[in-house]
Design a protein that fits this description.
This protein is an alpha/beta fold. The protein has helices spanning 19-30, 44-51, 68-82, 105-133, 154-174, 195-199, 201-210, 223-230; strands at 10-14, 34-39, 57-62, 87-90, 136-141, 179-186, 241-244. Strands 3-2-1-4-5-6-7 form a 7-stranded parallel β-sheet, with helices on both faces. 42% of the residues are buried. Belongs to the short-chain dehydrogenases/reductases (SDR) family.
Length: 251
């Protein structure tokens, strides 16, 4: 359907060097968008180049989103290369595991800077550009831990709770400017972020048994919902946090 096409649109995806971000960036490009991948990886330009072809246009920008000046530089570089921004996906994030009483405060600070502050600043920078034309789509990557506390990952749970609330707060402020702000909440995903958890065979088995779909999610499982939220098909959807979890939350 034409409403789902992204031809002529420009998109920025953070944390797009691998995993969920890379898969979402590929999906946007396949739907017709020109996409800028932001990542701390020094080879992000080569990654983007390898993804091009068959009409797909992607560029890579290296930036450290925990460095506020570098974040602004990276965003500015994306604008110059794309000529503007219609779609922003705030995907960059990190995990810290451990008991709350043992986690170093520095680890808390680094996680919050990337998972919350960088998302806040990227969203504001993008929204200012989107307001000029009265149109834009911002998609935040929340989590199952936006809904429950989890175990031995309190900083991450706190950050993803903040992502869900920022999604709603941004929607309240920006929907009237033609900017739709929504979030996806991936369930247990087979990505590098969960390597430690998946290595615990007992815990892995317990989680898998609790998922009605009887499997962990793959990065490509997010693409359909992301394209919907990035397209005109979702023009009357704002402030939503959509689980993509194989039915986990409904259990």
């Amino acid at each position: 359907m034409e409403a789902f096409r992204l031809t002529g649109k420009t998109a920025i995806v953070t944390g797009a060097g691998a995993g969920l971000g890379n898969s979402m960036a590929a999906g946007l490009a396949e739907a017709g968008a020109r996409v800028a991948l932001i990542d701390i990886r020094p080879d992000i330009g080569e990654i983007a180049k390898r993804m091009c072809g068959d009409g797909r246009e992607l560029v890579g920008i290296q930036a450290n989103l925990t460095d506020r000046e570098d974040l602004q530089r990276g965003f500015g570089a994306c604008l110059r290369l794309l000529g503007g921004v219609d779609i922003l996906i705030n995907n960059a994030g990190m995990q810290v595991r451990g008991r709350a009483e043992e986690i170093a405060l520095g680890d808390w600070d680094r996680l919050m800077e990337l998972n919350v502050t960088a998302l806040f600043e990227m969203s504001r920078l993008a929204a200012r550009e989107m307001m000029k034309k009265g149109y834009g789509k911002i998609i935040n990557v929340a989590s199952m831990l936006s809904f429950f506390g989890g175990l031995n990952c309190s900083p991450y749970a706190a950050s993803k709770g903040a992502v869900a609330q920022l999604t709603k707060a941004f929607s309240n402020e920006w929907a009237g400017h033609g900017i739709n702000v929504n979030a996806i909440a991936p369930g247990y995903m087979d990505t590098a972020l969960n390597t430690t958890l998946m290595a615990d065979q007992e815990r892995y088995r317990e989680i898998t048994l609790r998922i009605p779909a009887h499997r962990w999610g793959q990065p490509e499982d997010l693409i359909g919902t992301v394209i919907y939220l990035a397209s005109r098909a979702s023009d009357y959807v704002s402030g939503a946090v959509i689980p993509i979890d194989g039915g986990y939350l409904g259990r």
